[in-house]
């Protein structure tokens, strides 16, 4: 299977490109928040090309029993998320790593809330050694964001069909 079919959607901002695996896309589509359901969420796991700013989102985690969530909030508390990141890192001989978080919003075209931006800044502070990405899965589309120029900016989506 080619990269075009395995990673049918990418997001770009400045010179940074993020390619999303079809299984991650399917998981986002399945996770869309329906009316009165709690938020869904997890971490994003992927790799980076050594010579450029191309990232490959290949896996994600989903909510676990030790996590907390409501219609408008979530807290990643279950250690299973970190255990999965560690397992993927070991299995890939260091190529796969934590690259950010994802969560749902009950709106068609999701935008980050002030709580999202505060949480994302905290994630960046704890992971100063890498670029992080943040995905919000809306009821109509999902969007990737990254820190650029001191603020969080939405990345432009491109289809590769």
TrEMBL record:
JAB domain boundaries: 22-145
Any matching Pfam family: Prok-JAB
UniProt entry keywords in alphabetical sequence: Hydrolase, Metal-binding, Metalloprotease, Protease, Zinc
GO molecular function: metal ion binding; metallopeptidase activity
GO biological process: proteolysis
InterPro entries: JAB_dom_prok
Transmembrane parts of this sequence: none
Record's protein name: Integrative and conjugative element protein, VC0181 family
Organism field: Marinobacter segnicrescens
